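Appendix B, record 7
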Amino acid sequence: MSFPQPFYRWRPHPWHGLDVGPNPPRIVHAYIEITPFDLVKYEIDKVTGYIRVDRPQRTSSQPPTLYGFIPRTYCGQHVHQLSPKSERGDGDPLDICVISERPLARAEVILTARVIGGIQAIDGGEADDKIVAVLDNDEFWQDTQDIADLPAILIERLQHYFTTYKMMHGRGSQMVIEQVYDAQYALQVVSAAITDYGETYGG
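Structure tokens (predicted):
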């Protein structure tokens, strides 16, 4: 028996082949690329859909939450418009940080997340928002509906991680955090990213 060439086409692409979620923009799917135990940055290979090693982290900080993206989203013109100090969208799927009370040590998993807020980040002039969510069926976080319901130290850790995880020797970080926003604004960003995806890749 011979395998089709190329074989990866028979595996649903995590970005394009999965649903955005059961009730977007509030309840979405998240494809997890990095766990809080990772000291290497992984990201989706846009061609094959497999996880690629991007780089070992230069700093000692680790991601405070699960980190991945929302399928069938795209940071284009509509996301850029909600980030007025950016020059453009970053051309990637919309990033999402998912909080879970129980530790999840595995990446490349799909989970259902409830959007509660976000971090407006700009990376080298590009809108690079980080949606903040909780695992939807996690009873520990069942009453959490807005980012204001989270401990302040957790948001501080997220901001610190994203302002340091791309630091280069002698150059510092090109990532700027403009604001932390609430659930209502986050829903607008998710909706904008869904629209950007539809306009770029079709419905």
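Remarks on this record: Residues 12-201 form a domain with the Inorganic Pyrophosphatase fold (CATH 3.90.80.10). The chain has a mean pLDDT of 91.
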